[in-house]
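A.,

Following up on our hallway conversation. Structure tokens first:
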């Protein structure tokens, strides 16, 4: 492994960190999180490849999303899922048809006690085997698939399982799914500092899409690290103009000791929230330029309170528009020399 890489930071929620560190009193708990819990979660979601070199903290992971669809469709767990879905769907349709004839709904015992539990179990096993499908279920709206079910999926028992099944099959069988990433990718994770490295050969825009894709896969996987936030690390993140409304998107740092200065300017300290991100908003009631927040003031807040160079400041926005200019940090890595240094 040798080359230049864009650098990002994986940040955990305060809830997960407190579970393992016992309110920052247990330093070994943080080591366990970084070197074991995060690593095991990544290995469950992505393909792990051993890296040959002196730095044993760096690991390689890859995503082969298009190939994974074929693997899922050909797997035994998917075939069991398909059979269970077909049986439940046939039973669901029969109940709806008979309801029109009898002017009432009757759910047979076989449907309630055999077909429905079987579908539940098969759906769980499929999502457990392929965590990306959790993301598919979460990110696809019920309204997008209801029309595929008898009675528009408006009838009770088994409805949720059938809706989730339609979402999964729609993803697997649609080659142009919006969740698809248009190329396979790989990344490196350093379990010493929770940093991700993505080759600069991908380009800056693809880099941003890759870290968003990694974040969504982890957040949809029900892994032991819970909901996370991945943000680029910038050499500098600056604002050039004055603004009336300013919002700082602040990500929780993976170090309980680093929260003290951040909490001084937050209405609600991170420790009181389960969120991985908190928005800090500044608003001026005045209408003239004299009542705007100057670029100097905004940049000082970013640098002093939020430490953007450490990767805890995700962005600065005004009226939902990103107003920052920044150069993403590049890291040169040479595994032969145990070297991980800035550009």
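Then the amino acids I'd put at each of the 343 positions:
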């Amino acid at each position: 492994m040798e080359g230049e890489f864009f650098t990002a930071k994986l940040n955990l929620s305060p809830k997960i960190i407190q579970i393992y560190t016992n309110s920052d009193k247990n330093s070994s708990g943080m080591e366990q999180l970084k070197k074991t819990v995060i690593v095991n979660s990544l290995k469950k979601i992505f393909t792990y490849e051993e890296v040959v070199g002196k730095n044993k903290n760096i690991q390689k992971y890859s995503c082969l999303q298009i190939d994974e669809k074929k693997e899922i469709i050909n797997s035994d767990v998917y075939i069991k899922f398909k059979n269970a879905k077909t049986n439940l769907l046939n039973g669901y349709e029969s109940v709806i048809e008979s309801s029109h004839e009898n002017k009432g709904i009757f759910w047979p015992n076989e449907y309630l006690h055999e077909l429905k539990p079987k579908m539940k179990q098969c759906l769980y096993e499929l999502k457990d085997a392929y965590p990306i499908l959790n993301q598919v279920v979460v990110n696809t709206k019920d309204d997008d698939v209801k029309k595929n079910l008898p009675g528009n999926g408006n009838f009770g028992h088994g409805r949720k399982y059938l809706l989730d099944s339609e979402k999964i099959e729609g993803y697997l069988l649609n080659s142009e799914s919006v969740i698809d990433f248009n190329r396979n990718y790989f990344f490196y994770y350093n379990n010493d500092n929770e940093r991700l490295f993505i080759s600069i050969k991908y380009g800056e825009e693809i880099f941003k899409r890759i870290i968003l894709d990694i974040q969504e896969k982890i957040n949809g996987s029900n892994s032991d690290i819970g909901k996370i936030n991945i943000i680029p690390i910038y050499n500098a993140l600056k604002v050039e103009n004055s603004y009336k409304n300013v919002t700082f998107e602040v990500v929780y740092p993976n170090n309980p000791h680093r929260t003290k200065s951040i909490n001084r300017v937050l209405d609600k300290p991170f420790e009181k929230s389960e969120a991985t991100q908190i928005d800090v908003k500044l608003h001026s009631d005045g209408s003239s330029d004299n009542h705007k927040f100057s670029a100097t003031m905004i940049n000082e807040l970013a640098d002093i309170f939020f430490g953007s160079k450490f990767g805890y400041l995700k962005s600065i926005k005004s009226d939902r528009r990103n107003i920052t200019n920044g150069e993403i940090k590049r890291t040169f890595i040479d595994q032969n020399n145990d070297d991980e240094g800035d550009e």
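Residues 17 and 141 are 31 Å apart (CA to CA). Curious whether your intuition agrees with the design.

B.
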